[in-house]
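Bumping my old thread because nobody answered last time. Still need a sequence for this structure:
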């Protein structure tokens, strides 16, 4: 059965896309820890990050780096935190979270962001994405 991320990649489910190339897509998390919380996802559905081929894993990290740099230009924060957990969706994804406080990385503190603000932010991050 296709993961929710595969359905997003195929366009079956909408998202606030911030970046994309032939192998990866990045979009805003709809249940964010902080404003700008972004997910970087390989288009190929793979359950566990260390089941990826090393070259594909490295390419995902490079893509995530580029997205993080665009995020830093778009959202006021002390730094961009990185987390790979993978229990909530069985499809590899890298969390990029603009952080100002440690609790921003706990996944227990969530923020509400209106649709219009998500859309504007996605466009701003995309504009800053070098890709």
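Sorry it took so long. Here it is:
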């Amino acid at each position: 059965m296709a993961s929710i991320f595969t359905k997003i990649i195929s366009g079956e489910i909408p998202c606030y896309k911030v970046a994309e190339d032939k192998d990866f897509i990045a979009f805003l998390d709809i249940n964010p820890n902080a404003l700008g919380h972004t997910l970087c996802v390989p288009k190929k559905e793979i359950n566990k990050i260390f089941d990826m081929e090393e070259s594909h894993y490295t390419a995902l990290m490079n893509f995530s780096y580029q997205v993080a740099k665009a995020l830093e230009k778009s959202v006021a924060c002390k730094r961009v935190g990185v987390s790979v957990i993978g229990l909530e969706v069985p499809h590899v994804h890298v969390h990029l979270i603009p952080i100002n406080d440690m609790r921003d990385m706990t996944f227990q503190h969530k923020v509400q962001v209106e649709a219009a603000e998500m859309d504007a932010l996605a466009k701003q991050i995309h504009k800053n994405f070098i890709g």
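The longest strand covers residues 94-99. Let me know if any region looks off to you.
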